Amino acid sequence: MPKGNNLGEFEQLVILALLRLGEGAYGMTVRREIEERADRRVSLGAIYATLDRLESKGLISSHLGQSDGVHRVRAKRFFMVESEGERALRSTLNSLDRMRDGLMQFAQLMEMGL
Amino acid sequence: MPKGNNLGEFEQLVILALLRLGEGAYGMTVRREIEERADRRVSLGAIYATLDRLESKGLISSHLGQSDGVHRVRAKRFFMVESEGERALRSTLNSLDRMRDGLMQFAQLMEMGL
DNA sequence: TAGGAATTACTACAATGTAGAAATACATGC
DNA sequence: GCATGTATTTCTACATTGTAGTAATTCCTA
Questions:
Q1: Domain limits of chain B?
Q2: CB of B31 under 7 A from strand D?
Q3: Is B26 helix (H, G, I), strand (E, B) or coil?
Q4: Which pTM was predicted?
Q5: Mean predicted confidence (pLDDT) in A30-53
Q6: A6-28 mean pLDDT
């Protein structure tokens, strides 16, 4: 049985947001993506703390962006998912999916749409 | 945007295990279900601490079982999911699903089977 | 050069995750 | 009937993750 560095719930959302955003992933956009898509309020503090922790575990990486000439205020820090991060996400989601699998057949769940 | 009492990753697994197990859900079986289905090692301490927390939040409830005559060692404590718990689970999983939705179309994910 | 806007960094605390050891309670062998 | 075994829950303690709020940074504009 794998030791498994399981991702927390919010960590999963953050990594998924990075994957969705691709090149354009930095603090503000990650927040917006989660607020809009997951319909869930999040503070920037939460985003950055999580990004930092994921980076220090080697699951994601970051680099500072360049000025695009106009309207740049402060160097953006862009993030991307490393292969270790993909692996961790896949493993965590797989466990969840196996637990959800076939739940439909359980009587008490008929009405809850799982 | 809903305030949302989001369930943690492990809490989700525990509630899913309760739903799967139905009548037969108590500490030991919850552990076994998660170990086998989610292929993930868990201690009993983790299970019980989480069950207690979920109960004190009103998401699940418990009652002590009766002796079945033979082989009973200590009163089992059975658990079941309350409607608040179903609601919380549904909400958490829905957010996750929306974040996963359509991820296939993103190039870097083609090969990771999300 | 003061103020504003976009962005990241810091700080502190709450909630969740986790393991290990202790306690409980009955069954069985001797 | 007492020691030992076994299934189960409870307790304790600590590590990790989740979260908000506030401060700092940097460049723009008036």
A1: 9-111
A2: no
A3: strand
A4: 0.87
A5: 94
A6: 94
Give pLDDT tens digits for B21-47. Answer: 998 899 999 999 999 999 999 999 999
- Specify whether the CB–CB gap between B11 and B32 falls below 8 A: no
C-alpha angle with apex B93: A53 to B39, nearest 5 degrees?
70
Label residue A74 by pLDDT band (50, 70, 90). Answer: confident
Q: Give the residue nearest to nucleotide C16 (CA to C1').
A: B8
* CATH code linked to domain B9-111: 1.10.10.10
Asked if B2 and A39 count as a contact pair (C-beta separation under 8 A), the reply is yes
**CA-CA distance, B111 to B95, in Å (whole number)?**
23
User: Strand A60-64 to strand A77-81: parallel, antiparallel, or no bridges (unpaired)?
Assistant: antiparallel
User: What is the pLDDT at residue B65?
Assistant: 76
Measured between CA atoms, the residue of chain A closest to residue B14 is: A99
> How many whole angstroms separate alpha carbon A106 and alpha carbon B88?
18
Nearest beta carbon to residue B22 from set A89, A106, A113: A106
How big, in percent rounded to 5, are the helix, strand and coil portions of chain A?
Answer: 60, 10, 30
